[in-house]
Amino acid sequence: MTRLGRSGEEGAGDGPEAVALEISDAVENLTTLWSLAAQEAVLRLSLHQLRALRALEAAPGVNLTALAQQLDIGLPTASRLCDRLEAAGLLERALHPRRRREVQLWLTPHGRRVLGDVAARRNEALTKALAAMRPAERSALSRGLRAFLATRDDAPPGQDEPEP
Fold it and tell me: What is the 3-state secondary structure (H, E, C) of 118-158?
């Protein structure tokens, strides 16, 4: 149920709850745009596979346990996920040089190319959507996002809402 873009409602709901509903709708639409762009990539990946590759990109050489924790999935599920990614040539496993019982996970060059392709397609889709906006709207969106991120960055750990 989209609440954004309805005529006659501009300024009608500036309170945090009304804006939160609008943002929820926008995030849902952005998620759809993100998913469609990822599905058009050279290699179609599930959300879990894509998240795993992004995690490996951010933390090269992570072990399976840490990857499972980061993705909030069970160890057997993470292992099967890595089996599929390895079979597709997107990641490789290697023994840790000092801890022989630990296996490290690394993106392959093919895995990095696939992530680059997905990122490029997502950026293209987002650029197209932003190009349809008026410059003043893009500027307002950018300012609003920066302000939102600044409040999240300044919030003490465990505090969900800034104090009034």
Answer: HHHHHHHHHHHHHHCCCHHHHHHHHHHHHHHHHHHHHCCCC
